[in-house]
Amino acid sequence: MNRKFLSGTLVFILFLLAGCSFLSLNKNISNAPNNSISSKLANQISSIPDNQTELQNPEKPERLDGTICNSVIKGYNHADYERINIIFVGFNMPKEDLISFLSKYTDYDSAGLSIKIQEKHKITTEEGTELYTENITKIFYGLLGTEPFKSNKNKFNFWYVDQIQNMSESSPSKKTNKTNSNFCNSYCVSDIEGACGLKNIYPIYLCNASCRSYGSWATNKAYIHEVYSKGRKFNPYSIKTLIHELGHSFGGLRDEYTQINGTSAPGYPNCAPSLEKAQEWWGDLVGQGEAQLKVGYFKGCSYNNSNYRPTNSSIMRGSVVDLDYGPVNERRLSERLAEYSGNYSTNITEKDSLPQRNQRTKN
Question: Contact 16/226 with Cβ under 8 angstroms?
Fold first, then answer.
């Protein structure tokens, strides 16, 4: 038979473990997610172009008066506006690296970061199995390149703390932390973001450590691991880690992956304990979305196969480069964004980040 007629094709994409974490409801999970991303891919990155967004000149930053907090994007922040204050804090890394990474995470131009990577393919034909490597380009969209944040740019301020923080203790090496079970919140410990004197803050801790990324809606904090790839280059997969963890810390979204012997922790809005509850929470969105993000009822969510998730896959099922939140998660995030006007206010109040305790009812 002509070898063009393949009896089967299996594509293996090597991913970097980019922060599949979990909510603070369950801190005793010892295994990485089933679909976790291999750190080997970070070593295959061939080039990373500069982001187009203009960063602050580190010698002349725009500083929040009387604080150690600087603007990430020139002329963008308004501390007296009712906005979400994202505050980046660097741990165990040069300050110049922290500053150079920030435009890639914020992605103000929504252009994303294009890089070349290698995909390994395995093709099986009647004549046997062949392996080959293909060079491709992937685009990593940051916070403001991802919906629903992209459509709500005026709801955010972006700051960074002008003091690099030390680790509270030595983080484990990759060799000793093979299951990635040591969470970054045990090593990157600080409350320095409070020095900014702002309300509605959502700290993002960039941890130069071999620990497991983590996001908590109880503390509003997101911890991002492995910000470097091989050769101390920027690790683009940490962008998707940030998107995943912010889903926890800002939206209260649940992890949508499963784990062997995982402790079940279902909850609104995206991990239902039963089909009936799933129909109640997102039945009105069934059929919306496309491909992997088309809404339905899928078994396996929040560490246990008995729970239901709304899409076949999404950024909350793993830090997958090509997937966003999906309609159900976007609705929850949009509800949170709607709490902020983005406008000047003389009375800025703290917003409650905790997910609604009441179960969603049909309209």
Answer: yes
* Tokens coding 173: 């090496």
State the average pLDDT over residues 104-109.
Answer: 96
Q: Which two tokens stand for residue 75?
A: 């002329």
In this predicted structure, the answer to whether residue 140 has a pLDDT above a threshold of 80 is: yes
Q: Beta strand 156-161 with 84-91: parallel, antiparallel or unpaired? A: parallel
Q: Write out pLDDT tens, residues 72-95.
A: 999 999 999 999 999 999 999 999
pLDDT tens-digit map of 264-312: 999 999 999 999 999 999 999 999 999 999 999 999 999 999 999 999 9
Burial class (CB in 10 A: 0-12, 13-18, 19+), 231: exposed
Answer positive or negative: Cα dihedral of 130, 131, 136, 140. positive
Q: Look up residue 350 and give its two tokens.
A: 């703290």
- Is the pLDDT at 321 greater than 80, yes or no? no
pLDDT at 50: 41
User: Both tokens of residue 141?
Assistant: 């969209």
Residue reference for tokens 């980046």: 88
Token digits of residue 29: 């999970």
Measure Cα distances from 356 to 141, 282, 363 in Å.
Answer: 28, 15, 16
User: pTM for this structure?
Assistant: 0.81
Residue 344 host element (H or E): none
Residue recorded with tokens 């983005």: 342
The residue among 260, 259, 285 whose CA lies nearest residue 270 is 285
Element (H, E) at 334: helix 327-337
Contact at 8 Å (CB) between 270 and 332? yes
